[in-house]
Amino acid sequence: MNLKRLWLLFAQIVTVGLAIWFLMVTLKPEWTMGGNAQRKPLTSAVTVQEATPAAAPVQSSYRGAVARAMPAVVNIYTSKAVRYPQSPLLDDPFLRRFFGERFDSTEKQTNLGSGVVISPEGYIVTNNHVVEAADQIEVAFEDGRKAPAKLVGSDPDTDLAVIKVDLPRLPAMTLGHIEEVKVGDVVLAIGNPFGVGQTVTMGIVSALGRNQLGINIYENFIQTDAAINPGNSGGALIDVNGNLLGINSAIYSRTGGSLGIGFAIPVSTVKMVMESIINKGQVVRGWIGVEPRDITPELAENLNLSRKTGVIIAAILKNGPADKAGMKPGDILLSVGDKPIANMAEMFNMIAQLEPGVKIDLKVSRNSKEIPLEVTVGKRPSRKRLEEQSGG
Fold first, then answer.
1. Which residue among the candidates 114, 154, 233, 365 is catalytic per the annotation?
2. Is 247's pLDDT higher than 70?
3. Side-chain half-sphere of 130: how many Cα atoms within 13 Å?
4. If you average pLDDT over every residue of the chain, what do you get?
5. Per the residue annotation, which of 114, 129, 155, 225 is the catalytic one?
6. Contact, 223 vs 205, CB < 8 A?
7. Which site among 101, 145, 223, 285 is 20 to 30 Å from 51 CA-CA?
8. Rounded CA gap, 239 and 198, in Å?
9. Catalytic annotation present for 233
């Protein structure tokens, strides 16, 4: 019996001892390693790159950026009278004498969009398609003020327009630096989607320099997955400090709603167009009067071209700058000045930046031979006139 008690006592002592040892290993491991020995980290044969301890903390709220930017984003309401064709019977004076305005075939159409105040003097940037052909434009501010606006000028080739209101103490948005923006940066979109009122959505920069989308003549879009919907057009795309990065312009959608692919016109283009419209009343661009096509592998194979990439001149406007300089349909444009040309977007943007009246050296390839040409740059006509002339 005594032997059994001794065994139970021994078992209890061992159990308590193991419990104490476990607590020491867990809570004070250095006590079990002797002296001042420190616990060493586990090592691995795999090399990994660790984040710098001084990295900036993740931002949990963007209310500061929104508070700075939102007062400068406005809602734009437009209206225009549309007259529909009517039956000759409805023009009968006898019938009109009795029925009057009930035979009127004019209908008032309304549209909505957004805009960004870019100066305290009342200048507002928006999309051209928001105010195009509008008879009346009204602007509503976040603080509740409303005012009529007049169109200062528009640029259909970039889908930008400038309007102006006469109100004091207008909040203007600070222009950001697009050259510092990188893919992956957080951005916020502010606008008036579907007319529900000022709305903020968040996303990232999905891509930069998007072009050849067939939306505008001059394209250099910021692509973002921040939700952009109808009514957001003309609104602001801002950075996390509340600075303007772009004007929201278009979305890729099969349903009319956001699918996470939106496009904004970069602030660099906005600034150039805005200053040109305010100072000159229009945007003046260089032009040489050609209709280019991008060279694709299929086109190169069909036409037996030596080059698989670049720009081929498909047509030339008669008596235009390029025609006078001796350019021919089928020429492959190699360079403008000393800058090589890789695609149509580069060609359009490069020539557009040239001052009308200046002479520029072009290099083309014709029958596998390089030929230099000197072209006197012309002024790009309006889109309507270009369509009539079928020139590029």
1. 233
2. yes
3. 38
4. 81
5. 129
6. yes
7. 223
8. 17
9. yes
Domain boundaries, the chain: 64-164, 178-280, 286-389
Q: How far is the CA of 192 from the CAs of 129, 230, 235, 339, in angstroms?
A: 15, 8, 8, 42
Burial of 350 (0-12, 13-18, 19+ CB in 10 A): middle
Report d(CA 221, CA 205) in Å as an integer. Answer: 11
Residue 324's alpha-carbon distances to 278, 378, 390, in angstroms, are: 33, 11, 17
What DSSP string runs through 308-350? SSSEEEEEE-TTSHHHHHT--TTPEEEEETTEE--SHHHHHHH
DSSP conformational letter for 234: T
> Could you tell me which CATH number the domain at 286-389 has?
2.30.42.10
Length of the chain: 392
Residue pair 332/306 in contact (Cβ under 8 Å)? The answer is no
- What does the pLDDT look like over 322-381, one tens digit per residue? 999 999 999 999 889 888 888 888 888 889 888 899 999 999 988 888 899 999 999 888
The closest alpha carbon to 245, from 174, 184, 192, belongs to 174
Mean pLDDT value of segment 231-242: 92
**pLDDT tens readout for residues 91-112:** 556 555 555 555 555 566 677 8
CATH number corresponding to 178-280: 2.40.10.10
pLDDT at 117 over 90: yes
The answer to whether 206 is a known catalytic residue is no
Confidence label for 49 from pLDDT (cuts 50, 70 and 90): very low
Residues 377 and 358 sit within 8 Å (Cβ to Cβ) = yes
Catalytic residue check, 129: yes
384: pLDDT strictly greater than 80: no
Q: Which pLDDT belongs to residue 300?
A: 80
Two tokens at 380?
A: 């790009």
Question: Where residue 240 falls among pLDDT bands split at 50, 70, 90?
Answer: very high
Domain spanning 64-164 has what CATH number?
Answer: 2.40.10.10
Condensed to tens digits (0 to 9), the pLDDT of residues 271-325 reads: 999 999 999 888 888 999 999 988 888 888 787 877 777 889 999 999 999 999 9
Token pair listed for 24: 């020491």
Tell me whether residue 191 is exposed, middle or buried, using C-beta atoms within 10 angstroms of its C-beta: 0 to 12, 13 to 18, 19 or more: buried
What is each CA distance from 296 to 85, 309, 343, in whole angstroms? 45, 6, 10
Which amino acid is residue 326, in one-letter code?
Answer: G
DSSP 175: B
Q: Which of the residues 159, 225, 239, 331 is marked catalytic?
A: 159
- For residues 292 and 324, the answer to whether their CB atoms sit within 8 Å is no
